[in-house]
Amino acid sequence: MLRVEHLAKSFGGLHVLQDVDFDAAAGAVTALIGPNGAGKSTLVNLIGGVLRPDAGRVLLDGTDVTGLPSARMFDLGVARTFQVSGNVAQLNVFESVAVAAYRQARGYRAANAMARRELERFDLWRYRDERLGSVPSATLRLVDFARGMVSRPKVLLLDELMAGLTPHEVDVVVEQVRACRDEGVAIVMIEHVMQAVQALADHVVVLNQGRMIASGPLSEVSRDPEVISAYLGAPLGDGTPDAGPAPHPVAKGT
Ligand SMILES: Nc1ncnc2c1ncn2[C@@H]1O[C@H](COP(=O)(O)OP(=O)(O)OP(=O)(O)O)[C@@H](O)[C@H]1O
Ligand SMILES: [Mg+2]
Q: In this structure, are 217 and 162 located in the same domain?
C-alpha cells in the first residue's frame, strides 16, 4: 500500500531524516514513535507532500508519488491530521468536516451528505453547530479524525491524535481508529501515548535523531535496549496489546 524507501531530508546542514525505510500495509496501523525531535512529523510531512525529500521515494500502490504536492497526494488518497490542529476556530464542527469533503465530492449536496454520515458515525452529529474553538479537546480530536476519514482515504496520517486526552478518552478514540483500520485504511500514527500504541499498533517504527533504530511488532521493539534507552525508559509491561497500562504510559515526548 504505502512504501517509504530510503527517505532522507536535511534542513540546512541538519540531517533530520536519514535512510528511513518501511511499509505501511492496508488495514493495519503503523506507529511511528521516538523522542521529541526524532523526525516523526517531518517524515509524515514528506509522505503527505508537505515537504519534498532530498533522497528516497514514496510509493502508493506501487506508483512513485515522491514529491507530489499535498493537494495531489490528498486526491490520490493520502489524508492527514495535524499535530497542531490546523482547524479554524470560527468554523463549526459540520463546516470543518464538510470543507474536507468538498474536494472529494461532486457538489455541495454530496459533500454535506458525506459530512453528515461521517459525523454520525463518530457520534459527533449533536456537536454539528458548535464552533471548533468551544468543543472539548477529545471531541476536537474526533472531529479532526472525521475530517481525515471523510475523503475515504487509502492512507491516513495521524500526528499525535491522542495528545492531552484522558485514558478513557484515549479508549474512545482508539475504538474509532480500530474501526477505520478494519475498513482497510493504511494508518500511519505518530503517537507518544503508549496506551494507544499498545492497543493499536500492528507494526512499530522507532526513530531517533532521524534514523530508524528499530522496526517490528511492539513486543519486539519494546525489548530492544536501544529503544529503551533512547525512548521508552523501561520495558513496556509484557509488550503485548491489552497488557494494561505501561509503566511509562507517556514515554519521552509530549
Ligand atoms: N522547517 C524546519 N526547518 C529547520 N529545522 C526543522 C524544520 N522542521 C523540523 N526541523 C527540525 O527537525 C528535527 C525533527 O523535527 P520533527 O518535528 O520532525 O520531530 P518530531 O519527531 O515530530 O518531534 P515531536 O515529538 O516533538 O513532535 C528537529 O530538530 C526540528 O527542530
Ligand atoms: Mg512531531
A: yes
- Is residue 244 domain-resident? yes
Q: Which residues of the chain have pLDDT under 70?
A: 82-89, 237-254
Protein residue whose Cα sits closest to atom 3 of ligand 1: 11
Q: Report which of 131, 33, 34, 149 is spatially closest to residue 81, judged by C-alpha positions.
A: 149
Which CATH number characterizes residue 239's domain?
A: 3.40.50.300
**Cα dihedral: 179, 38, 44, 58 (round 10):** -110
Pairing assessment for the beta strands 203-208 and 211-216 based on DSSP bridges: antiparallel
Place of cell 491530521: 81
Are residues 109 and 225 part of one domain? no
Q: What is the pLDDT of residues 100-137, one digit of tens each?
A: 888 777 789 999 999 999 999 999 999 999 998 888 88
Please choose from 7, 16, 40, 83 the residue to mutate so as to test ligand 1's pocket, defined by most ligand atoms within 8 A of CB.
16
What is d(CA 247, CA 239) in angstroms, rounded to the nearest whole number?
11
Tell me which residue range forms the domain holding 4.
1-77+153-254
> Is 82 contained in some domain?
no
Q: How far is the CA of 44 from the centre of ligand 1 (A)?
A: 11
| Residue 191 CA, ligand 2 centroid: distance in Å | 9
Domains in the chain, number? 2
Q: Which residue's alpha carbon is nearest to atom 30 within ligand 1? A: 37
Q: Ligand 1 pocket: which residues have CB below 6 Å?
A: 11, 16, 34, 36-42, 83, 253
